[in-house]
Amino acid sequence: MPTKNGASPAPLEYKIIYSKRKTIELRFDGANLLLIKVPQRTRKSAIEAILHQKADWIERTRKRLAQRLPVPQMVQGEQILLLGSWHSLNIRKVVTPDEIFNTPGVITLSQKLASQGAAGLIPLYRQVTRQWTEHYAQIYSEKHQLPYNGIRVSSAKTRWGSCGANNTLNFSWRLAMTPLLSIEYVVAHELAHIKHRNHSKAFWGFVAQIMPNYEQGRAWLKQNGHALPVF
Length: 231
Ligand SMILES: [Zn+2]
Known about the structure:
The chain is α/β, with parallel strands linked by helices. The chain has 7 helices and 9 strands. The protein has a 3-stranded mixed β-sheet, with no helix packed on it. The protein has a 3-stranded mixed β-sheet with strand order 4-5-6.
């Protein structure tokens, strides 16, 4: 996935917060501010020791957070992620449903939706997620005799999809930001759970049977999933 802006990283700032706690806790507030919560009267040397000990974790976490794309501001011409590629946002007073994707590489949204901020993208992301997950689920469920009990589009932040006990398939609308290959993989993965309720070798073998190139779709999510904007 190409990066949206190539801003150079700002220096990492630290903020020490003394409180009535018993242990030291490190927590990032964004990529450039590390909050260090410590018990009252903790010595500077003890804090320095912890920072030294946790240096790898700090660096790793910071890098990951720095890669996260900013939440869309919904301004004219802004680059918006859809199906793994950037689209220009075109804001117009009135937009009919068939005008949304009229121009390749452009998403046309109404002023009313854009004025809601990034939340204005969610109906579109939900619609795209439903459309493509239904598309792949129908094809694969028929081909491999995997009867599912409908599709639910959720707003889950930490999982792309899940398969309920009653074989209802759940998919996060955040999938609309990822390439079709990744959506296809998540559908194949959740459908495979109808047959294998675990992540055993047999499960992965079955996923490969459903979608022989599933690794590609999975790899994109592993490499880029953490960088997608969260809203
Ligand atoms: Zn699974």
